[in-house]
Design brief:
Layout: E1 2-6, H1 13-28, E2 34-39, E3 45-47, E4 53-55, E5 57-58, E6 68-71, H2 84-90, H3 92-103, E7 106-109, H4 113-119, E8 127-128, H5 135-140, E9 144-145, E10 150-152, E11 156-159, H6 164-177, H7 179-188, E12 197-199
Parallel strand pairs: 1-2, 1-6, 2-5, 6-7, 7-11, 8-9, 10-12
Antiparallel strand pairs: 3-4, 10-11
Length: about 200
């Protein structure tokens, strides 16, 4: 399973780095995961919300389509010049998300990354959640807001703020690799999952 975590100037560090570590640990325990941090802006060095500098792989047209894309949040509520709101307004990431989703890629968003996904018109009438301070914005975008830490609506998965990215990543490990891998990853990281996972009933 090819997983890409998209990073951009102003992203929240934990939103991306936490899930990255979860997926890498899952691969160590036998999950068929290949995960990387990618930049879709054409630059390889990205500066995160709290100043962390990250060197990411640049997206190449020849790259295979990812099976799962993770979008972090950051900077939405503060209206920072870099971050999720800026990327939603810029439009390049939402356009790429819509294209990948049409091709079959699953999309997951952490914290206010959900607002980038909403800008891609992928959450209209869909179950979703985000950071508590952006819930009204998410609802205004047409999402069916659920009161859960992780909301799994099949091919679009969202979660609440910051640390809930760990819960989302562990849930995705369980969903795609099984609880027998998710459990030792959780134990190794000394993290106890919190809150509920809302799932759309499978038919």
């Amino acid at each position: 399973m090819r997983i890409e975590i998209v990073v951009f100037d102003g992203f929240d560090e934990l939103d991306a780095i936490g899930p990255f570590e979860v997926f890498q640990n899952a691969a160590k325990y036998g999950a068929d995961f290949s995960v990387r941090l990618v930049s879709w802006s054409g630059v390889s060095e990205v500066v995160a919300a709290h100043g962390l500098r990250v060197t990411a792989d640049r997206q190449d047209a020849k790259d295979a389509r990812p099976d799962l894309v993770i979008i972090p949040g950051g900077g939405w509520n503060d209206r920072n010049p870099q971050g999720a709101r800026a990327e939603a307004e810029r439009g390049a990431i939402p356009a790429r998300l819509a294209e990948l989703h049409r091709a079959g890629t699953k999309i997951a968003a952490i914290c206010t990354g959900a607002m980038i996904v909403a800008t891609a018109n992928l959450l209209g009438g869909r179950a979703a959640t985000t950071h508590h301070s952006a819930i009204n914005d998410l609802r205004a975008a047409g999402a069916d807001v659920k009161s859960a830490r992780v909301v799994d609506d099949g091919d679009v998965i969202t979660c609440g703020g910051v640390t809930s990215g760990l819960d989302l990543a562990l849930w995705l490990v369980e969903r795609f690799a099984g609880p027998e891998i998710a459990r030792p990853v959780e134990s190794e990281m000394d993290y106890e999952r919190r809150g509920d996972v809302w799932q759309r009933p499978r038919v």
